[in-house]
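cron nightly-structures :: item 1 of 1
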Amino acid sequence: MESQGATLDLLVAALRELAGYSERRLAPLRTLLELDTDGRPETARQRTRRLKLWRRLLQDISLDEVSFDGRFGLGSRRATLASLVPWCLGYLAPSRRRQAGPDALFGFVGLFLLTLLGLAESEAQRSLPQSSAPPGGSGQALTHDCGSICGVLIAEDAVAEAVTAVYSPQPTTGRRRADANLDPAEREWRALDRKLRFHRHGTTSMILRGNTASSVHGTRPEFALKLILYPFTRISTLAHATRTYAETYGTSSTASQHLVRVWASFDSWILMDFIKGKTLAEVVREESEQESSAGQVPTLRLDRLRTKGLLLFEAMEELQRIAEDSPEHSRVKGLHADLSPSNIIVSDADGTFKLIDLGRNYLYTHTITGTTGAESCYVAPEAKAGDNEIGRADLYSLGQLLILFGSGRAGTDGVVPDIFYMRATPLARFIEDLIDADPARRLLIFSTGPGTGPEPAFSFAELKSGFLTELDMVQAAERDETVLRVEAGWRALPKLLRPLAGDPGREWRLWQMRRRQGDRPDAHRSQFTNWLLFWSLLSALIWAVTNTVVLTWILRDLNLSWGNSLVDLVQHASHNPTGLPIVDSWRASDYRVPDWRANLPARIVGLSYAIAAPKYYQMLFSGLTPIVIGWRAGALSRLALATETIMRIMAVAPCMLVLAITLVEPRWWPINSAIGQCLTWLANFLTLAYIRAVIARSRHLGLSTVPSDDSKITGLSQFTQWVPTSLFYATAVLTIGTFLYLQLLHDTYVYALAVASTNVFLFYVIKCGIGGPTIRVAIVRTCLAAERVGRCS
């Protein structure tokens, strides 16, 4: 008998000539396939030998196009497909059936074509970039029209017969016929109706559907048959995992709501319940396409996070509970290990998530050559590396799926997308705690179990509680909005009319929510909630007081009656009908009110600072604190304390400088302007130093939640530019201000207008208003990383 490779060479050569349908060309192929042509019945021995040959031929097909073409010539796989597709479809024409030959020939060639198409589709899916995914819809493919080729072929009795014959359970070498692992597979296989329908392609398989031959309670249960493409069955680890799948993940006795019931499995197939519905990948993609077609800006979908997140947590809870409650499923250990959108079916019946394809995907361990595919970003690094300890792999996948639910796209770079830091800091903190590349550094903050062993235990039920807590915090902060939109760049212009960026109200609502959730054991975070609320409210209060005072003194300079009954009452009580008690006594001896000509520069500059300074604090620093790093990080902790100090100084100091020139001495405005600019530079300098130090420590510790490249940290490069520009501006203001104060310069109104316009247009509108949200992303990311650094120290 010819060698396996030579036989396949002859088969491929023959298949290329099939388009002619001539007996001269088909006869060698029939002989090659060991098909009887003299009409005599085939003996059992001949059938066994023929099926063995067919399996060898299928198993020996090259897995990828490059290998196939390298073996049989450039373009050979495409040429083979180009010949096979019209031959198989042409065979179905009534006028050609008799000329083409026996059905067994068509059946095997049809299976051979389906295998080649499946390999081409597998390679195409695995070649997609991680940010993409195959098109939605059952049965759709990237490389061909499944409905008119695969669907038509599988529906033919001859092809279905070839499938059931080739894939029928056979004893492997060293296994006895009476092996207990084989009997259920044989029993279930014989009970199947040979009427099969094509469902979809998998990355290493094709999925068919059908009904059992016998009815149960008056109905014939519908099954899904996952057929491993035959060339993949020569990989022993994949064949073993497929053979033991029913034994490992069978759930017939658990009444599971979220796990698909597995009937049986063999080296090359898995038989399970058929679930009507779409994969989660298709559902999310369709929703995202609808949003894109509506022209929406990038959004964070809190409604989708809540609904789909809860469904996912419930499914993972059940998987964990089955492993804990059922000794026969102890090997499952509550682990999926390949939790990705394509392995979750959203049931049409009740909308629940059904988990399928549990266990390692050998595409990611390089057991199978080639690229890993678009959904490898959902798989934990240790699972892709083939590590033995993967008990925390599902945490990583869970975090990546939450990113998908919120943003509508996969987190391909292993970090949390910027929109979470912009609009949902508590959720960014929660997800960061799930997706660290090092499994030992997952759940540093939201630990749910004892911290012993290489992979400490955790509870999905408790994690669900933590997730809902953080989600409720975000919705409370955002006034129960369910769809949060990006507010960066020029899209932030409408928010410019909110001088405090809405932060005091946001911090107040967060504080109220924390109080209602006081039973949660997260006191460390709650303490900072009180601290940050105090400074946010203090900044807002001093902003209101300062602006009120400056506007009041402007009206006094203009000698206008502002109709303030409270002031009239104070004046009447103090028997001073023209002035204000106490505060007027603070004025310098040469400070007269009203005197708009002399006081106008101080009023203009003071009002501009009173507007811009609180915006700077509330936009960049409010709600954040560097000291989350704790006190065990050495020099980094001391730097955090210094940064915290300057941040809080910026909440009050600029407005206090404005009050000084308004209430005490207007001539101080050049010096106070210089002091304010120097404080701003110091705040920028220390904050940037802290950001860089935390990033460096995070990378030293190996925290993957911080991007490895500075260019990928949104806002960092812009904030880096702030330090030299603020130093230059502070130096210029200090120099010119000193000359003005010493009366060496006399263009007072020109410099006052320059300072005021710079404060309003450059700092308030451009830097804090338009650029502020992106700068804040860098600061938020750093503060969250600092908390994780503190837990690692």
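cron nightly-structures :: done
The radius of gyration is 36 Å.
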